[in-house]
């Protein structure tokens, strides 16, 4: 079937190369990009790029139950094994994410500190600012605890090792990453793939699984399943927890509000949802008590 994709030409070429490498190493749970009638990997239309791929369903592979979560964990480990060592073909650009998420989190932490400074002595708070006040210190503690880990020697060493191994990630591990095909997950979100720390993918899966299933205990189950297929040193648990526990969506909502300073009720509602979910996925809590 032919589908319209939200991707640039070079992203299609890069994804095709990674998929081809993964499949050649035995990974099958991913869409393939086939050549079109014109002999290209995509056709252009007025709406964007069209790619040709096999038929697949539209039902997302949801991370709301343990069976699906563990299936996804195993598939992710297999993908990481099959893509490690990928060398981008000559003339093809591959996305590079090493260290970018940690830097994004650092910038969000700085934004929250700035927000706190702006409103701490303010006389007339907006409804959103008033709502956020009781949560600011807690969110800052969580964010800074993660930042300490991202500045550690262990994290920097992990980055270096990942670069040497040329690890490749999906850079997406949520209920929209894959669809159901024959009862199993098929990865369809492929245009963000690129070089990165594999444990970032793993941490994203853990975060989304905890928040979707409302079960903090799936953390250990996911690690056990992933480790049964791909080696992850036990001393990396602290780094994984730092990714999972960072209150990304809460801080992102506050940042968005700072940029517009309006639609208070909309942002209050958005922050309520983000905060309640990220309260569940704070798995560094036990370490900091």
TrEMBL record:
Q: Which InterPro entries match?
A: CotS-like (IPR047175)
Q: Which domain of life is it from?
A: Bacteria
Which protein, by its recorded name, is this?
Answer: Spore coat protein, CotS family
Assigned GO CC terms: endospore-forming forespore
What organism is the protein native to? Caloramator quimbayensis
UniProt keyword terms in alphabetical order: Capsid protein, Virion
């Amino acid at each position: 079937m032919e589908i319209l994709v939200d991707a640039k030409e070079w992203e299609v070429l890069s994804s095709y190369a990674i998929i081809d490498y993964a499949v050649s190493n035995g990974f099958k749970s991913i869409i393939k990009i086939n050549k079109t009638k014109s002999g290209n990997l995509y056709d252009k239309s007025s709406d964007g790029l069209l790619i040709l791929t096999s038929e697949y369903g539209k039902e997302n592979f949801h991370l709301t139950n343990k069976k699906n979560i563990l299936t996804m964990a195993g598939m992710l480990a297999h993908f990481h094994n099959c893509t490690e060592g990928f060398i981008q073909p000559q003339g093809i650009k591959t996305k590079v994410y090493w260290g970018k998420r940690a830097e994004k989190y650092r910038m969000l932490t700085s934004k929250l500190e700035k927000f706190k400074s702006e409103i701490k002595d303010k006389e007339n708070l907006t409804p959103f600012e008033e709502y956020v006040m009781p949560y600011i210190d807690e969110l800052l503690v969580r964010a800074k605890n993660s930042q300490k880990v991202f500045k550690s020697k262990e994290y920097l060493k992990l980055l270096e090792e990942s670069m040497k191994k040329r690890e490749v990630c999906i850079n997406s591990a949520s209920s929209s990453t894959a669809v159901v095909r024959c009862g199993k997950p098929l990865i369809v979100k492929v245009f963000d793939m690129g070089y990165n720390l594999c444990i970032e993918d793993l941490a994203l899966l853990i975060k989304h699984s905890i928040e979707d299933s409302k079960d903090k205990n799936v953390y250990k189950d996911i690690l056990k399943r992933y480790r049964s297929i791909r080696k992850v040193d036990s001393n990396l648990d602290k780094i994984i927890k730092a990714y999972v526990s960072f209150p990304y969506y809460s801080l992102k909502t506050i940042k968005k509000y700072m940029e517009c300073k309006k639609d208070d009720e909309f942002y209050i509602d958005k922050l309520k949802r983000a905060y309640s979910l990220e309260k569940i996925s704070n798995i560094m809590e036990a370490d900091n008590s």
